[in-house]
Amino acid sequence: MFTPRQSRRGEVGNLAAMGILTSLLGMVDSEMVLATGSSNRALAAILAVVGVLALIGFLFAIFRSALKLALFWGAVAVVAWLFFFRQ
Length: 87
Fold this sequence. Notes:
Largest sheet: none
Order of helices and strands: HHH
Shape: elongated
Structural class: mainly alpha
């Protein structure tokens, strides 16, 4: 059988990772990060670059997914038209 760490879909592992992430985020004081970022220009620049890269990655993933979906339905349409005209 499967042990809790080796589940078929990884639910237990994902839940454990989410718990760790939540506890790590709970440890971060946002007021301290804002105060440190406003006084430290290098940290502010790093955070800005990371934020921009995250946004670019997010938009790239959305467009890539949309392109795959459009190509799939385009192929379905071509097959439908070929089937229609062969009759």
